[in-house]
Amino acid sequence: MNTEHASPVDLQLLREEFGDGGPEDALGWEAVHAFEAHNGVVLPEPYRTFVAEITDGTSLGPTDYDGILPIGDLPADWPDALAERDLSIPFPLTERWVWEEDEEEPDTDAVFLNGSIVLGTDGCGMNWHLIVTGEHRGHVWFICGEGASPFGAEFGGTTGQSGFAGWVRHWAEGKPWCDVIEDGS
C-alpha cells in the first residue's frame, strides 16, 4: 500500500466505480491543500486524489447509509461530545481492540477523536475511518461502540486488501466485509 503516490490501477478502479469526477463533484486541489493545511495533515493516497479529482462525497459506496461522506463531515448520529476532532494527533491503535471485553472502563476518546476522517457509516454508530496520521496512516478501520478493527487481509477476517482502494475494491466485488471464516474451517 503506497500512501504517498496514487497507483494508476487504484485511480482507474475509483473512476470506474464513482465516475470521472469534475468540478461539480470533486473538491479540487486548492481545496484539498487548504483542508490539509487547516488540519495539519497530508491525506494518504489514493483518497487524496479521489476527493480532489473524482468526488468529494457520494451516495454510492461501501457504507450502508450515506455512501462516502464529504471530507471532514461526520455521520448524522455522531455524538456532539466527539465533534472536536484533531486529525494531526496520531491515531492511537495498531491492532484490533474490543474494549467491550475489557474489565475496566477503557478510555476510547482518542480512537474516535484523533488521526482519522470518517468515510461513512453503517448506522448505529458503526463507522468506517481512514487513518490520516500515525503508524496506520492510509489504513481503513471499522470503529463502533464495542471496539475498533483494521480492514485488510493481514489483520484477519477479510480477504480484502488494505487501504482506501482495497476497501472500495472489496465492496465493488460484492464481498461481505468479514469474508474469512475465523475458526479455520
Instruction: Kindly report how far apart the N and C termini lie.
Output: 29 Å
Arrangement of strands in the largest sheet? 1-2-3-4
* Residue windows where pLDDT falls under 50 for at least 5 positions: none
Mean pLDDT: 91
Q: Sheet bearing the most strands, described? A: 4 strands, antiparallel
Please provide a written account of the structure.
Residues 30-146 form the Knr4/Smi1-like domain. This is SMI1/KNR4 family protein. The protein has helices spanning 8-18, 29-39, 47-54, 109-113, 163-172; strands at residues 116-121, 127-131, 140-143, 148-150. It is of the alpha+beta class. It has one domain (8-172). The chain has a four-stranded antiparallel sheet. Strand 1 and strand 2 (127-131) form a beta hairpin. The chain starts with 7 loop residues before the first helix and ends in a 13-residue tail after the last helix. The mean pLDDT is 91.
Top keywords for this entry?
185 residues, alpha+beta, 4-stranded antiparallel β-sheet, 5 helices, 4 strands, globular
Q: Layout of helices and strands, plus pairs?
A:
Elements: H1 8-18, H2 29-39, H3 47-54, H4 109-113, E1 116-121, E2 127-131, E3 140-143, E4 148-150, H5 163-172
Antiparallel strand pairs: 1-2, 2-3, 3-4
Summarize the structure.
The protein is an alpha+beta fold.
